Amino acid sequence: GHGRDGDGEDRPTRARREPGGVMAGSGLAWSLRMLRRGGISLQGLLVGQKGVAPALLPKTNTTTSSALVTRRLYASQEAVQDAEHVHRPYVTRREKAIIESYAHPAREYLRGWEGDARLGEAVDSGADAAEVADQGKLVDRVVPVLNRSLESVGEVTLPGLIYDQPLRKDIVHRVVVWQRANWRQGTVKVKTRSEVRGGGRKPWPQKGTGRARAGSIRSPLFRGGGKAHGPRPKDWSQQLNSKIRRLGLRVAVSSKLATGRLTVVDELRIESEVPKTRELREFLDKFEADRTSFLLVDDAAGVDWSSYEPYHAQTGVRKSPWQWRSNLLRSAKREEKLESRCEEFVKLERSAKNLRKRAKVVQPEGLNVYDLLAFDHLIMTPRAVKAVTERLSHPPPRFY
Fold first, then answer.
1. Which helix (H) or strand (E) holds 11?
2. Residue 379 belongs to what H/E stretch?
3. C or N terminus of the chain, fewer CB within 10 Å?
4. Which residue has the higher pLDDT, 380 or 316?
């Protein structure tokens, strides 16, 4: 019962003693599992010269530049690159369980799903399309698009994988604690008795004065002395998995939609040539909520999504649309960033400064869980909805 066989010998010792025996926790066992997961057998590694499998031989790819870039290509990767790129969302095991337990046809993000046949059956089953699902069923939601007069001018479909997540207070709490901890500067510092200027001479003799013994006037007992056990510089930052952070943002956005506090407007634009707080305040007053704060999200990057390529031309690394967009914005110089920002967004951002805590304008990159909890109502444009959807519909970046 303690990892021993019938003859009394423990299993790790037998695995080391017997020929071909591999310990479950050894590095060789881990390597074999990784090879099997990649579709490569141990016999395949032994085929060929010098024990190198033909599938692992590097290939040279010529690009438009003068230099030749050598990259490692696998047969499965070549098939994916040659085929037309079709984006499939990242679905966790918990989300798969929800989809299988509740069949509903309003799940467009699962059309053409090839990973698990049961998910396709959950979509194609004869469920009632008119049935209104509760929050957390991962069902697509149709939201009207309003104009400045709050009149419906169209509709937009919000994927249920992002905007219909079940409420998880524990996840939201972990993300908020992580955000607030990373905001702390940790630069507060006070001086100890050894750092305060002066106090090098003994103020009075040890005996004979009738006073308490003292060695320095910079002792914590004296006025003007050092601080005992005071704050020192410290790093308060915390680490949180990217999957938890993304799930927290999905839950926060889904909560806004479920409570009716998410509005999609066709555009957030200031009509005047200069920033005007009054014009923005008049628009917010149409919601008839005096003590309601608003979080405005609009895409001001001006990135052309049609020029997206799923694979890097030189390295062959797969890039999600959001990764590709972020790399473009990160690589641009400061002057180019300022020029690429939409003038309408700059006017909107400056118009909201005088509203203090009632309104805040952010880009899709700056949408976070803390602001979603701090502000009552979320207002987004169709461009921002598309950018946030691309941001949250892809798994964390994995380089291979």
1. helix 11-17
2. strand 377-380
3. N
4. 380
